[in-house]
């Protein structure tokens, strides 16, 4: 089997984390993927 690696600009990176200010007990954690075509970053 061959092993392949992604280029350094195609690696998955951590996103932003926002604090829950209101401390709701019914809050949910969402992971949202967004690609901005105006930046030079890969999708």
Commentary on this structure:
With 43 residues, this protein is mostly loops. The chain has one domain. It has no helix or strand.
* Tally of discrete structural domains: 1
Overall SS class: little secondary structure
Oligomeric status: single chain
**DSSP E strands, number:** 0
* Largest β-sheet summary: none
The count of helical stretches stands at: 0
> Regions with pLDDT < 50 over 5+ consecutive residues?
none
Specify the helix fraction band.
under 10%
Overall pLDDT level: 77
In percent terms, what proportion of residues is strand?
under 5%
Rg from C-alpha positions? 16 Å
- The best one-word shape is elongated
Ends distance: 28 Å
Core attributes:
0% helix; 43 residues; little secondary structure
Write the layout of secondary structure elements.
Layout: no helix or strand
Short structural description:
With 43 residues, this protein is mostly loops.
